[in-house]
# Entry
Amino acid sequence: MPDRDGRPWWMEDRPSRPRPVENGIQINATRGPVARTWWSQRFLQVLESLGVGGRLARGRTYARQGQIVTFDIAPGSVLAQVQGTRSRPYAVRIGLPTFGKTEWNQIVQALADDASYTAALLNGELPHQIEELFTEVGSALFPTSIRDLAMDCTCPDTAVPCKHLAAVCYVLAERFDADPFLILLLRGREREDLLDELRRRRATPQSAPADGRAPLDELMDRFYAAGDAPGLGRPPLTGPRTSPDALLDQVPSFPITVHDQDVRELLRPLYRALPDAGG
# Structure
């Protein structure tokens, strides 16, 4: 029979508080929002949209108290041990499907095609439009349905997520803040592998467009070079001939003189001699 608190009789003597963990893994946010970056906030928003977020608060205390004993991120999964009320920590797993070689090839090529994406990633950030880029190539950076998100815990709680899973989600969100490449790792691509491939593809010369015009980045070294306009058959434009010392006529009189002479008149022979000096 349940007791007055609604617990079964066999749980009456079980401690209500989790056992303390020495040097446990905990989040830095002691109060307020956990996620600081847009990609970490987006991760928690996705969990809420999938109906998971409403139960996340159950694990916030566990995450702040440092109840996580071990925490490991690998392609497709997060494995952790969380200390609860029992003597043995519970085993927790959060899983996401990884992308195959073909999918990642399309993703990397789309990232390499836009220099702004490569620059942001090399700077250790996720571009704001990267989620849309994944969608455009037929993939998804974050889970799109509850079927994309596997959550398991060895505790007896039937709710998903339980407080142990929720605590791991908070730690994961804070890890995303520090290293956004962990999001890509969950989808199957290591940080250095991705960056090396982006550098290689950006360094490879791009083929000319179908209309025969060279890409602008290949023309930048001569784009502003002086010369005739190609193909127009016209001589270079020239302006009206102006006296070299005409500029002095636009300068107000100096408030001082040199040997009773206007400084502008002293400079005039020098200005007139400049064209001859240039050859």
Observations:
- Confidence is low (pLDDT under 50) at residues 1-7.
